[in-house]
Amino acid sequence: MVATTTTTTIAAAYFPAFPHSILSPHPPSTRPSLPYPSKPPSSSPISSLSLSVPNKPKPTPIAFSAQIVTNPLPQNHATSSDTDGPPTENHFNLLRTSVRYNDVELAKAVHASALKREEPKTTLSNALVSAYLKLGLTTDAVRVFRQCLSCPDVVLYSTMISGLAKSGYELEAVSLFFRMRKTEIEPNEFSFVAILTACNRLSDLELGFQVHSLVVKMGYVGFTYVSNALMGSYSKCGRLDFVLQVFDEMPERDVVSWNTMIAAVVKESMYDWAIELFRDMQRVDEFSADRFTLSTVLVACAGGRNWNGGRQVHAHGIRMGFQPTLNVNNALIDFYTKCGSIRDVETLFESMPVKDIITWTEMITAYMDFGLVDLASESFDMMPEKNCVSYNALLAGCCRNGEGMRALGLFCKMVEEGTELDEFTLTIVINACGLLTDMKISEQVHGFVLKCGFGSNSNCIESALIDMCTRCGRMDEAEKMFYQGLDNVSCPINWTSMICGYSRNGKLEEAISLFCNRPSEEVVVDEIALATVLGVCGALGYHVFGKQIHCLALKIGLLNDTGIGNTLTSMYCKCGNLEGGIKIFDMMSTHDTVSWNSVMGGHLLHRQGDGALDLWSKMEKAGLQPDEDTLRLVISAYGFTDSNLVEKCRILFLSMRTTYDIEPTPELYAAFVGVLGYWDLLEEAEQLINSMPFEPNATFWRALLDAGRISLNTRIGAMAAKQILALEPLDPSTYVLVANLYSASGRWQCAEKTREEMRKKGFRKIPSRSWIINENKVHSFYTRDERHFQSRDIYSAIDVLILECMKSGYAPDTSFVLQDVEEYQKKDFLYYHSAKLAATYGLLTTKRGEPIRVMKNVAICGDCHTFLKFVSVVVRREIMVRDSSGFHVFSKGQCSCKDYW
Question: Residue ranges per domain, the chain?
Answer without folding.
Answer: 665-766, 785-895
